[in-house]
Specification:
The protein has three domains: 8-249, Nucleotidyltransferase, domain 5 (2-Layer Sandwich); 258-306 and 405-478, Nucleotidyltransferase, domain 5; 309-399 and 501-514, ATPase, nucleotide binding domain (Nucleotidyltransferase, domain 5, 2-Layer Sandwich). Helix content is 40%, strand content 18%. It contains 19 helices and 20 strands. It has a seven-stranded mixed sheet, with helices on both faces. It has a five-stranded mixed sheet with strand order 3-2-1-5-11, with helices on both faces. Strand 12 and strand 13 form a beta hairpin. The longest helix has 21 residues, at 384-404.
């Protein structure tokens, strides 16, 4: 593309709970960031929705505030890149207005429908997995559309397109309707062909609603240009290029600098995603994990632990009242916690923690909804420090678990999320996995990945790979310690044995609780 104006890229990341807007230069340096909360509602048990108009208003306000607080003239923004929470159902009518509140990816209303469909078609999940490479979640687009067809047919009758979050914002900025391969393939779609799957549409009895699916366009292509109304709302220049963008997991992967096959990236947050870049779609092991398309014609295999830093937050809330009272900031609190954990030696004096604190159980290395967390090996000589260190170590071992079931080896792990700020934890992850751990420079990796795709679209970079290579800064590196690696190898053997030996007890406890 020629005649590009500006020397900054704006990345807009529309998270489930926070909207983030960030500015980057051509070297990938994060220059300024603004964040604002995005509310969601639960009109019924297990439902999760958000107001589409409010999402647009918050996104526009974030852009405007970013320019104001950074002192950046609108003319300096060369392009806008988009990412956001994935799938769900964001429906618009012929006038481009929302038909109803958006249904989010973490909505659970379709579970009875899925169970009914499994009764009618026992091979349902196998067929979905064979095509998409992912374990389908209740908040994926196709089951939600099937639910709407049964419970709100008038809603679908009014709709002209079903979008994902970032695509709704792209429409408000440019007036164009599209989705990208990273979204289309997990609706569920076809991971091999990187687009929708008509077989999946038919499987969910949605053929009459096939008209709702907009064209699939490359993540690094232009969606269009900012129109005058959007310019007034955002403070950006009318005519600014806007990129199609990618879902938040693939965009964050690019922002982390993971684009070469064999590179892993772990997002250590409320949930933990352990991802591996590959040059072909990987479907093994079957029945677990997720498979994402990566812009640049690569794929990302992801294994999920649904309880990450949640476990640490729980421990702090239940057992660290004194530390909470004494800490003057969240950073000081977690520094104090690490000091407490360091009072215990590696191996936590024989205590082992299985970090399955979520009521949803576990999805890696196998799917077990009845799984629950345990402290194993306790005696009366153990201290809070032992328990806390065991908790850190248990989560590190769960990350090892995520890579152990990957169908190809990982040569380094790029670490992000709240846990990546901890040198103590980062080193422990390197020791537990035996892999070098890289903490990239920056904070808003989803927004950065979106911005890099915008840079490709306007010709700043020739390819997605070039964009990532030219902008991948490193803040810290951690190398495995051979002695501690040997210790964690022994602990991991016990950890794995507990996983399998406890399954009958977990299931019996769940059955007992249900009676």
């Amino acid at each position: 593309m020629t005649d590009v104006v500006g020397d900054r890229l704006l990345g807009l990341d529309l998270g489930t709970s926070v909207v983030k807007a960030a500015l980057f230069d051509a070297s990938g340096h994060e220059l300024a960031v603004v964040r604002s909360a995005t509310p969601s509602t639960s009109p019924a048990p297990l439902w999760s929705e958000t107001d589409m108009t409010q999402t647009w208003t918050l996104a526009a306000a974030a852009c405007r505030l970013l320019l104001q607080q950074s002192g950046t003239e609108a003319s300096r923004v060369a392009a806008v890149g988009l990412t956001g929470n994935m799938v769900g159902a964001w429906l618009v009518d012929a006038a481009g207005e929302p038909v109803r509140s958006a249904i989010l990816w973490n909505d659970g209303r379709t579970q009875p429908l899925i169970e009914r469909m499994q009764g009618e078609t026992p091979e349902l999940m196998e067929r979905i997995y064979h095509t998409s490479g992912s374990v389908m979640q209740q908040g994926c687009t196709l089951p939600l559309l099937r639910w709407l067809s049964e419970h709100e047919p008038a809603t679908l009758a009014r709709a002209t397109a079903v979008l994902c979050c970032k695509d709704w914002i792209a429409y408000r900025l440019t007036g164009t309707l599209q989705v990208d391969p990273t979204e289309a393939t997990v609706m569920p779609g076809d991971a091999r062909s990187r687009t929708y799957s008509d077989a999946m549409v038919d499987l969910f009895a949605l053929s009459e609603w096939r008209r709702l699916f907009p064209p699939v366009r490359h993540s690094e292509s232009l969606a269009g240009f900012l129109h005058a109304e959007a310019a007034a709302a955002t403070g950006l220049r009318a005519g600014t290029p806007v990129t199609v963008g990618a879902g938040d997991v693939p965009a964050s992967t690019l922002g982390l600098g993971a684009v070469e096959a064999g590179v892993g990236c772990t997002l250590l947050g409320t949930n933990i995603l352990n991802c591996l870049v590959s040059e072909e779609p990987l479907f093994a092991p079957t029945g677990v994990g997720l498979l994402f398309c990566l812009p640049g014609n690569r794929w990302l295999r992801a294994m999920v632990n649904v309880a990450g830093t949640t476990s640490l937050d729980w421990f702090v809330e239940q057992f660290c009242a004194a530390e909470r009272a004494a800490a003057h900031s969240r950073e000081a609190l977690y520094t104090g916690l690490e000091q407490l954990a360091c009072q215990s030696a590696p191996g936590a004096n024989g205590v082992l923690f299985l970090p399955y604190l979520s009521a949803l159980g576990i999805t890696t290395p196998f799917w077990e909804p009845a799984a629950r967390a345990e402290f194993f090996g306790l005696t009366d000589r153990h201290t809070r420090g032992d328990l806390l260190r065991a908790l850190y170590e248990g989560i590190a071992l769960s990350i090892r678990d995520g890579y152990a079931v990957q169908p190809a080896p990982v040569r380094e792990i790029r670490l992000s999320g709240g846990g990546a700020r901890s040198a103590f934890w980062s080193q422990m992850i390197a020791d537990s996995t035996g892999c070098p751990v890289v903490v990239p420079a920056g904070a808003e990796f989803g927004a950065k990945g979106a911005a890099l795709l915008a840079g490709v679209a306007i010709g700043w970079y020739k390819t997605v790979e070039e964009a990532v290579h030219k902008t991948a800064g490193v803040e810290r590196r951690f190398w495995p310690d051979p002695g501690r690696k040997e210790l964690y190898d022994r602990l991991y053997t016990v950890y794995r044995q507990l996983q399998y030996d406890l399954r009958p007890a977990w299931r019996a406890a769940a059955k007992s609780a249900a009676q």
